[in-house]
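User:
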Amino acid sequence: MNLTQLLVHHKRLILTTAILLALAGVNAWFDMRRQEDPFFPYRNGFVLTQYPGASVEDIENLVLKPLEQEIAQVEEVNEIRGVVRAGFSQIIIRMKEYVYDTDTGWNNVRDAIERAKLKFPDGVLQPIINDRVVDTPLMVYAITGSNDIMHMRWVAEEIKMELLRIPEITKINFYAQAEEEISIEPHPHILKSLGINASYIVAQIRNKT
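Assistant: Predicted structure:
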């Protein structure tokens, strides 16, 4: 008896079996455990550390190496990759594939960073850690050349806009980005002739902002 004959002669049995399987599937769906906020293991992250004014060599020896040495001792860490550019270092971190309790792993990374900070020279800023990265940064570039910081920022924005025209590029982030600021340098002799001091100027500026 071939398959066609089997289906013809046992239609009721096959139909009943199909209905039972469908009901079992529906029942399993409603009994399935659900989470309001499903857990997702974040195995990729990075640490960004700024050292303004330092050379690339100093950043590598005084910042990057202490961080790499301490982070490499974290049991959950599978791979680290360091990048040094003018003014900052970045370490890309990947957890081991079998690690699902990634919160504990990243807490251990934070402890390692605190140990590394004890070896930092003065002037190194607080490391920034991002442990919720889904996509690992593929490339890191530094823009140098001009002493005009705001001009460099404008150049970076222009480059970003051009790169985002490429369909394969989804996101570009800026790190160690300069912000605009206004510097006021009052002349001491003029202040004296007007009978005011620097504190008065500061108070007036605060009242206007």
